[in-house]
Amino acid sequence: MKVLALSVSFLLSFPVAGSSQQASSSGANSTHAVTMLTQSVAGLTGNTTLTDVALSGTARRIAGSDDDSGTVTLKAVSNGSARLDFSLSSGPSAEISNLSSTPAGAWSGPDSISHAISYHNLLTEPAWFSPSIAIARRISSSNFIAAYIGHETLNGHAVEHVSLSQVASSPDPPGGPSFSHLTQVDFYLDSTTLLPAALSFNVHPDNNALLDIPVEIQFSDYRNVSGAQIPFHIQKFLNNSLLLDLQIQSAALNTGLAASSFLIQ
Question: Which domains does the chain have, with CATH numbers?
């Protein structure tokens, strides 16, 4: 299957697991959670403000019986807009998410045909490869609620589990998933450094926002780039199976990425 992970056919080719743990919806931030997230961003950025991130490196994508390898370029800006461009043995593919106003997104495969990304799949974290942007844009907004879930172990390492979800501006429609659930992203911070070891969220088939398919992003091999800590090894798991294995080779920060990079054609 030569398409990006967010295509409907790709998502439905996997059995569906249960949803992730639901964050508290009390409407009040956990002071402990906010403090840890603030310290995490400070450690990630070196107390500087990141406006954009551009990463490039090698990529391996595993989709069923397909196992492709090649190169990838990843770009993101502080509002969460993101662009992923792959050049793999099966051909080029791309994914763009623009959060500058009303969220919009599109993906394309080797045939270069553009397909819209459903709105409910744009509500979690398009810039999942940049933990600094993922956390910073949430704690700087009054629309997100942070909950401390607890001290846990992840892949043999001690982590602090913090969950964030967005406050709905209007009542949730009857019979549908809550906005809080659709926007929930869970962060697992190393208990010693508070650098993110992983983040997780759910994606959904285009025509069924009630059906949760878990995604987990794992970060390792943090390196200092211009005073910031950047993970040079990033793995993306879909429904508990490895989908992407990215080895970053170069990283550039605050280069002034053009807004046109994230336009949806």
Answer: 22-249 (2.50.20)
In three state form, how does the secondary structure of the chain look? CCCCCCCHHHHCCCCCCCCCCCCCCCCCCCHHHHHHHHHHHHHHHCCCCCCEEEEEEEEEEEECCEEEEEEEEEEEECCCCEEEEEEECCEEEEEEEECCCCCEEEEECCCCCEEECCHHHCCCCCCCCCHHHHHHHHHCCCCEEEEEEEEEEECCEEEEEEEEEECCCCCCCCCCCCHHHHCCEEEEEECCCCCEEEEEEEECCCCCCCCCEEEEEEEEEEEEECCEEEEEEEEEEECCEEEEEEEEEEEEECCCCCHHHHCCC
pLDDT in tens, 44-86: 999 889 999 999 999 999 998 899 999 999 999 999 999 999 9
The residue to which tokens 């002034």 are assigned: 256
pLDDT digits (tens, 9 = 90+) for 163-172: 999 988 888 8
The Cα diameter of the chain in Å comes to 49
| pTM of the predicted protein model | 0.89
Closest CA to 219 of 190, 261, 178, 240: 190
Residue carrying structure tokens 């800006």: 77
> What token pair was written down for 45?
């950025």
Work out the number of other CB atoms within 10 angstroms of the CB of residue 242: 14
